[in-house]
Amino acid sequence: MKQSELFTKTLREAPKDEEAVNAQLLIRAGFINKTMAGSYSFLPLGLRVLNKIENAVRNEMNAIGGQEILMSMLHPKALWETTGGWNNIDVLFKVPSRTEKEYALAQSAEEAVTPLVLKHATTYKDLPLAVYQIHWKFRDELRAKSGILRGREFLMKDMYSFHETQADFDKFYAKAKKSYLKLYKSLGLTAKATEASGGAFSQKISYEFMVLTDAGEDDIFYCDKCEFCVNSEISKQNIGEKCQKCGKGVLHRAKASEVGNVFDLSDKYGKDFKLTFLDKNNERKHPIMGCYGVGVTRLMGVIVEKYHDEKGIIWPESVSPFKAHLLRLADPKSKAGKLADKIYAYLLADNIEVLYDERTVSAGQKFADADLIGIPWRLVVSEKTGAKIEVKARNSKKVNLMSYGSLRQIL
Amino acid sequence: MKQSELFTKTLREAPKDEEAVNAQLLIRAGFINKTMAGSYSFLPLGLRVLNKIENAVRNEMNAIGGQEILMSMLHPKALWETTGGWNNIDVLFKVPSRTEKEYALAQSAEEAVTPLVLKHATTYKDLPLAVYQIHWKFRDELRAKSGILRGREFLMKDMYSFHETQADFDKFYAKAKKSYLKLYKSLGLTAKATEASGGAFSQKISYEFMVLTDAGEDDIFYCDKCEFCVNSEISKQNIGEKCQKCGKGVLHRAKASEVGNVFDLSDKYGKDFKLTFLDKNNERKHPIMGCYGVGVTRLMGVIVEKYHDEKGIIWPESVSPFKAHLLRLADPKSKAGKLADKIYAYLLADNIEVLYDERTVSAGQKFADADLIGIPWRLVVSEKTGAKIEVKARNSKKVNLMSYGSLRQIL
C-alpha cells in the first residue's frame, strides 16, 4: 500500500488524558483513535493488526475442533436474571428501551450460548462440542485508564465447551491450554498458566494466562524452576519461599497482564436454565461446561507494552500491519526514485506485504514515522544506496546494503 | 465439511413468535438462532453466508477507494448532543453507567467518524477520502417482527466520504451508486435506486436501493420503461400516470425492501462539530460529507425472502455456505459408500466448498435437509448411481447422472 493513500498520519501527541503507553503509541502512530476513555476505533493500520491476531486465534480454535459462531450482543433481561448475573455482575451494562423492556449488553455469553447449543445438541452423541465467537463485549468499568488493555468495549474470543463428564472436560481443558500457549508464542509472547480464583459464581480454581510485563495490572508469584504460577491474591505461599510444587525453585513476584483465561463452569448454566441432554442410559443430565477467553484487542495492547522503545512500536512479524516499510528518499523522477518504484512492484509481485512511503516529506519525517509505526523491516532506496537497498530491522541498529535477491532471502 | 461434525441440526419448527419467512427458514435450517425479537445469533452455516456477503461488500468498497476501519459502538452522550441526535433520534439506545455518564449505542456513526477523520485530514490535499466499516449497529425498534430484515442489532456497512466541494461529492456519489448496483447484482439481486426523503436532518433527496420483494416494508412507484423509481411517500405522481422522467413509461406500484442508501450530508457534521480543513486559498472550510449504507444482515434476509420455495432456501451461488452438498446414501463400507468418500476427497482437493452428509440418517431426512439448507448443487452417491454421481441443482427439478469429470465442468 502506498503511504500517501493512507488517510491516517502520525500525530505529534496523544490526547492529554491518555495515560497508557499502548494507547499513546497506537494513537500517535495512527493505529487507533480514542472516542472516549475505554472506547477506541481501529484505523486501517490497527485493523490490519487486529485481523492478524484474530486469524491466529481462529486458526488455533479451529485446530482443536471449535466451531465459529457469532452471538447477539443484546440479551433479554430474563436470561441474566436466570443466572443471577443481572444483580450480581457490576460491570453489566443494562440498557433501557422504548418498549420498557430492559436488555443486557453481553459482557460474556454463557447466557446466550447455553440455550442456543442445547437446542441443537440433545443427546450424548452430540457431545463433546465446542463453539466460539470472536466478538465485541461491553463492560461498565469504573476506571478505564489502561488504553486497549481494559476497555468499556473490547474484542474477545470466547469459546464454550459442553461435555458429558468432568473427565471429558478435563481432557478438553488440557488441549485448550496447550493451544493457548502455542497461540501466545506465535504472537511473540510468553504466557504462564496461573492459578486464580473462580470469579463471581465458581468456587473452583480457574486459570489465567499471564504475560510478564511492567504494564500489567496483576501481581503473580512464579517459581523460577518449574511451571508453577499463581495469582498473588490466592497464593498460600510468599515470595522467597521454596516452591511447593517442585520443591526446588523459589517463588518470585512479577507484574503481569492477563491475556486469556479458562473457567470450569461445571453444570451451573445447565442447572440455571433447566436444560439437559439425554445420556447413554437415556437419563436427562446437565452438561459440564467450560469457558475459554482470549482478549483480542487486549493482546494488541500487551504486544505494544512489551515491544516498544522510545521511538515507537516494534511489531513482532506475525502481527505487524506490513512486513516491510519501503522508504523512497529520492526525487520520484530520478534514477533512485524509479528504482524505489521498481522494488515496490517486485515486493507486491512476491506477495510481501509492504507499506511504500513515497510521500513528498523530509527524510527525517519518514525515518521518524517508520520508527513510530514499527514495521519489522525498513528498506531505504536513495541516491546513496545505488543499485542496492539499505535494510534495517526495527529491533536492531545494524544497517545492511543488499541486492533485492539477498533481501528476499531474509523477508 | 462433514455434516456430522456440524453442531447444528435442522429443526422441525421455528419459534412460535417468529412471523418472518426469512427467520423461520434460517432458524429451521440452522443458520441463525433467535435470542429475542430483533436479536439473532449466527451459527456456522449462517456465519459462512454473512462472511461471503461481507467480503463482496468489502471488495466493492475497496475498489472505489474506501479505507476500512472499525469504529467504537459506545459513544459519549456529548457527541450526540452536539448533532441533535440525542433528543431527536427515537431509535437511539441510551445506556446509563455506574459512573453516571450516559452513552449512546451507535445506530450510525457520523458522530464518531467526523472528529476521527478530521484529526487526520487537515488540508485539501487530504481530500477527497472515504472510510468505511462493516460493523454492528443498534436500534431501539418498537416492533421487531421482520426477522433479520429489521433487527435491534444488525451488521451494516457504513461508508463516509469527505469532499472539498459539492461537485466532487456528486462525482463520488455517481461512482458509489454504480458500485452498489454491481454489488447487488453479484448477490443475485436486482436493486433500483429510489428517490426518498432525506431522513431526520436533511432536506435533501436521498436515495434508497430497493429490491422488489413481497416481503418488503416499503411501497415504491417505478416506471416500466426507464430507471425512474420513487418511494411512494414522496412521489408527486400516482400509479397509472405517465412517467415524468422519460415521458414514455407508466408508473407501477410494488413492495420493496431497502438494501442500501446514500445520504448527502452536506456540511452539517463539520458545522456541528466546528471542524474544518484548510482549502487551497488557505481558508477554513467544512467538508461536504456523504454517507453510504448497506445492510449486511438485512441482505441475507432479503436473499432468503426472494430465493426460497416450500421446501426451503435456494441460495445464489455467490453467497451459499457451500457450493455443493454431497449426500452419501449407502453403507459407509459398501462400494458406493467408499466412492462417496472418494468424491468428497476429490472435491476438497479441487477446492470446491462442499458439505458432506455422511450421517447415518435416512435418505428421506438427507433429501429434506438438503432442500431446507438450500446449497446450489446436490450430489448423490448411492448403490443406484454406480460409478457416477446424481447431480441436481436446487433451483431445478432435473436430475443428471454424471462422471466426476463432467461434474467439474459445471461446478
Name the descriptors.
ATP binding (chains A, B), 11 helices, nine-stranded mixed sheet, alpha+beta, five-stranded mixed sheet, EC 6.1.1.15 (chains A, B), homodimer, 411 residues, BirA Bifunctional Protein, domain 2, ATP-binding (chains A, B), Rossmann fold, aminoacyl-trna synthetase (chains A, B)
Describe the model.
- The structure is a homodimer.
- Chain A is about 30% helix and about 30% strand.
- Chain A has helices spanning about 20-30, 45-65, 75-85, 85-90, 110-120, 165-185, 270, 295-305, 335-350, 365-375, 405-410, and strands spanning about 30-35, 40, 65-70, 75, 95, 100-105, 130-140, 155-165, 190-195, 205-210, 220-225, 230, 250-265, 275-280, 285, 290-295, 310, 310-315, 325-330, 355, 375-380, 390-395, 400.
- Chain A contains 11 helices and 23 strands.
- In chain A, the strands form 6 sheets. In chain A, strands 3, 7, 8, 9, 10, 11, 12, 13 and 16 form a 9-stranded mixed beta sheet that branches.
- In chain A, α2 (about 45-65) packs antiparallel against α6.
- Chain A has 2 domains: about 10-310, 2-Layer Sandwich (BirA Bifunctional Protein, domain 2); about 325-410, Anticodon-binding domain (Rossmann fold, 3-Layer(aba) Sandwich).
- The model of chain A has no long low-confidence stretch (mean pLDDT about 95).
- With about 400 residues, chain A is an alpha+beta fold.
- At the A-B interface, β1, β2, α2, β3 and β4 of A face β1, β2, α2, β3 and β4 of B.
- Chains A, B: One of its GO terms (cellular component) is cytosol.
- Chains A, B: This is Proline--tRNA ligase.
- Chains A, B: It catalyses: tRNA(Pro) + L-proline + ATP = L-prolyl-tRNA(Pro) + AMP + diphosphate.
